[in-house]
Amino acid sequence: MKVLLFSASNSSQSINQTFIEHIAQYIHQHEVTIIDLRFFPAPLYSYDIEQKSGKPSAMMALHNLFSSHDAFIIATPEHNGALPAFFKNIVDWLSRIEKKIFQQKPVILFSVTPGAGGSKLVLQHATDLIPRWGGNLQATIGIPNYIDFENFETYFQANQTLLSHVQKTLQLL
Predict the structure, then answer these.
(1) Long-range interactions of 27-32: CB distance < 8 A, separation 24+
(2) Per-residue pLDDT tens for 31-84?
């Protein structure tokens, strides 16, 4: 199985992208591809732009990546209780290529946050949207209180139960 991992963040300092890169080491039974969505630029979706200029080549390339993988692992920040506008824009463009962008494939969703809430609102929001976008949602996990740690190695040393839960969840694929 080929698994595509990415963060829904457009920050060069994204703790969610760092998390994706860290957890890839726990996936042994599958081929893993890690991407950074910042390298797939697209203008803010507009029907007018699409009619005038067509679909951005970066979105066509991203769609091809989605099609060539069997499952997805996504880590998303929470922006005012919702998915980042950056990621929603990518979904809007991809859905113009193929409505069900995740093509009925398995999706595992994480959200890393510096706060104690564990990104409950964004996970609830995404739980409704991922199936609508054609994802077969396997699990959602919030990773809270990350601000207190230097890196994910020390975070998971202090949170062994959560690490075990993450590792078991990754085995769902």
Answers:
(1) 27/3, 27/170, 27/173, 29/1, 29/171, 30/1, 30/2, 30/3, 30/70, 30/71, 30/173, 31/1, 31/2, 31/3, 32/3, 32/5
(2) 999 999 999 999 999 999 999 999 999 999 999 999 999 999 999 999 988 999
The pTM of the whole model exceeds 0.85: yes
Query: pLDDT tens across 122-140, in order?
Result: 999 999 999 999 999 999 9
Per-residue model confidence as pLDDT tens digits over 84-105: 999 999 999 999 999 999 999 9
Place of tokens 């993450």: 166
